[in-house]
Specification:
Length: 228
């Protein structure tokens, strides 16, 4: 007899959903909301590697110190300042895959995520890049550009425009699994970027770029600006 696993499937109505949800367990309202999500069996996988992230954070804050493995526990305990591991950071829920991931919260996440950029980008340059809003029109080749910018975190906001959906013949140039066929290319790109970095701002334009939304694309929520 096949076990009932229908609770693991994403709701078909979620085909347009591309933003994750955030839960901070130190807040009673967030804790209640997350517990409800778990009780309703809307979480198929929990991934909690917060201890390893805290180790990296401690290393980032002490670059000139060679920390021994057995020293991390005390250093991390001091950093937590009495908080439990569950309460520290943020739990990020991806509704399209029903995955729940425990991460450092935004400032510490960015600090660790961009730490290896330091030898090619200074802290001042990185901070300046994070104020930039970048627009990308067309997400065939444009998808690779968006993903590269997200990986490098060389902007603070991405605006993605494409009217098309993914078809099987597109998979020679679009980084997407077959489970994404039929989804809008903007949604596919935004989901992958948020799985790399849930704190980036992404705005999508599923109708592509046209005269009716051009002003919003270039000037809404602050101007898309040159990198200078």
């Amino acid at each position: 007899m096949i076990k009932d696993i229908t609770h693991l499937y994403s709701n078909p109505e979620n085909n347009s959903v591309y933003q994750p949800a955030f839960f901070r367990m130190a807040l009673d309202s967030d804790k209640d909301a997350l517990n409800k999500l778990l009780a309703e069996k809307k979480v198929s996988l929990i991934h909690d590697e917060i201890y390893g992230q805290l180790q990296e954070l401690i290393k980032c804050k002490n670059p000139s110190v060679r920390i021994k493995g057995d020293e991390y526990e005390a250093l991390i305990s001091k950093h937590l300042k009495g908080k439990s591991f569950d309460e520290y950071g943020v739990w990020v829920y991806y509704p399209w895959s029903q995955r729940l991931v425990h991460l450092l919260d935004e400032d510490e996440f960015i600090e660790v995520r961009t730490n290896r950029n330091r030898y090619k980008i200074t802290k001042t340059e990185q901070d300046k890049l994070l104020t930039k809003k970048i627009g990308i029109v067309g997400l065939s080749v444009g998808q690779s550009i968006a993903l590269t910018m997200a990986i490098e975190r060389t902007c603070g906001e991405l605006r993605l425009a494409d009217f098309d959906t993914a078809e099987l013949s597109n998979l020679n140039r679009i980084r997407a699994g077959v489970q994404n066929l039929g989804l809008n290319k903007t949604v596919i790109a935004a989901r992958e970027i948020y799985e790399i970095d849930p704190f980036l701002n992404i705005k999508i334009f599923n109708d592509g770029l046209h005269t009716g939304n051009m002003d919003e694309f270039f000037f809404g929520w602050g101007q898309v600006g040159p990198l200078r």
